[in-house]
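> agent: user asked for a holo structure of the chain below bound to flavin-adenine dinucleotide. Plan: (1) validate sequence alphabet, (2) canonicalize SMILES, (3) run complex prediction with ligand conditioning, (4) return tokens. Step 1... ok. Step 2... ok. Step 3 dispatched.
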Amino acid sequence: MSAVKGLFSGRIAVESLMPYPRMLDKDRATLAMMVEAIDGFLTPQGADFKRWDRQGAQPPEFIQGLRDLGLFGLIIPEEFGGIGLSNAGYARILSQTSRHDSSVSLTIGAHSSIGMKGLLLFGTADQKARYLPRLASGEMIAAFCLTESGSGSDAASIRTHAERNPDGSWTLSGEKIWITNGGIADLYTVFARTPAADGKITAFIVEAAWPGVSHGRHEDKMGIRASSTTTVNFDQVRVPPGNVLDEAGKGFKVAMAILNNGRTGLGGGAVGGMKALLALATAQAKERHQFGHPIGEYDLIREKIAQMTLDCFAAESVVWMVAHYIDSGVEDYSTEAAISKVFASEAMQRTAYEALQIAGGSGFMRDHPYEQAVRDSRILTIFEGTNEVLRLYIALSGLKELGRSFGDLRAAIDDIFNHPIKGFGVLGDYAEKRLTQATGIGRDRISTQTPPALRAASEIYERYTLELAKACDFVLRRHGKAIADRQFELKRIADLAIDLFVGLCVLSRAAGLVDEPAKAAPAIAMANMFAEQAKRRMAGTIRRITRNEDEAVRALAAYVLEQGGYPWDVI
Ligand SMILES: Cc1cc2nc3c(=O)[nH]c(=O)nc-3n(C[C@H](O)[C@H](O)[C@H](O)COP(=O)(O)OP(=O)(O)OC[C@H]3O[C@@H](n4cnc5c(N)ncnc54)[C@H](O)[C@@H]3O)c2cc1C
């Protein structure tokens, strides 16, 4: 079972969390070489990144440089000419490119994380042979085309459509918006509505050079301005039968699998951005003197540096835990991946905000890098699933699993007279779970596996895992199936799951560092800090499950919506 889904029923799957995984040996040597080559190529271009941010485009010679470095073939197997990095190795590369410029990571990430990921996950041997070598070399750049003007978070409502022709080919029409790499891509993974007989949504591989494919102008964006974002139009495009990804009608599943599998790219990028900001912020805190001292000597600045470091360590711990789940063949990791995206994106935004604050007025000036970091990181909580929708997903996916055991319970009761042994078995499990939730007896112990310095932190997670299970039990009993529409409750459940899973990843990572004297003490301190902060947040969240002002919040929002805005004045 997925580690997070286990938490919803009060279980800490210690075997999925400890020991903290290590980067594969085969990737380590490649990564060391690539990191050096990336720094060698990108470091001298610092001024260019600033200029391209203003101009809003990366020049073709720069994209060629990315090709020459092999950055379009990172996750493509070596047999197709790629580098064959693991998910963990790939995320590490994106963290390196993000230290220099977010738009660079986006160009590479939109290609690998989502643009051509469908071919890797679902492509036939023929599709792979036709496209992967050209994608690996960067001769073809890929993009992912799901969003439309009327269909953002509600991806299932797309209008782009495709009809099957008598010869088996398809005719595809519609317009996609805000497509990253839209203006430079040669290959699009396109999602379209298909007639009921073929299922609802189908994924197609479409070449940009085919008649009827065109793209709009480069969007003028707030951040990640140099990365290409355009509309992509499909006007009666003929798609050969061999270019359907997976089966017709399975497109929604394909889209979600791609997004889930690609989340560590975004997370890795966010971690790299945080590391770059920490380097800038520490230099600033040491160099800038006010009131006769470096500002880094003041507690309120130290508090920011410490929190930024903790956020970065926590994001890194959860992103690479998820990457290793994917690499080791864990099948059900979508909830963990969603948590890593939500946490890493918000941590990056907090870090960008605080780094700018440490720089004071200089941070606001465009000749310093902070304002761009704030602008660039703003997108992270919006694309690849908004954090609101992902929180709903995190809660609902865990509750669904629990509801299934409620369903099992009902089935068991129905079944008990026909198959007493089977029926009583399920009831026995359920009763044990309830007893554990109520008393804590028989609860999973991670504290027995962690060093003494982390026992107290471990016990916090043990206790709040039971609290999460109790909270789930409570909301399911109170709302039944209607829980799907109770967003305040779902957000609270998701926030508990996020704190628990991220905290457990931090704990596991710190426990794994105890034998490395130089790193152990600060890592243990961070794990304890995270646990204490998480405990305070979780305690508040649990309280608000029963004591809250939800009705007042709903009513106030309804009033303001009805008024069309803020209706008061002081005149
Ligand atoms: C720079 C950029 C690059 C992008 N790149 C790509 C790309 O390469 N490929 C691609 O297909 N798409 C891409 N997108 C689109 C992106 O994925 C969408 O913007 C995103 O999915 C959100 O959709 P939306 O913007 O229509 O917002 P909406 O879905 O309209 O959401 C608006 C707000 O309502 C909230 N909301 C929506 N539904 C609910 C709900 N049920 N409950 C509570 N709150 C809700 C959202 O969280 C959000 O805060 C990109 C967007 C941008 C800005």
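> agent: step 4 complete. Summary for user: Residues 251-287 form the longest helix (37 residues). The longest strand covers residues 170-180.
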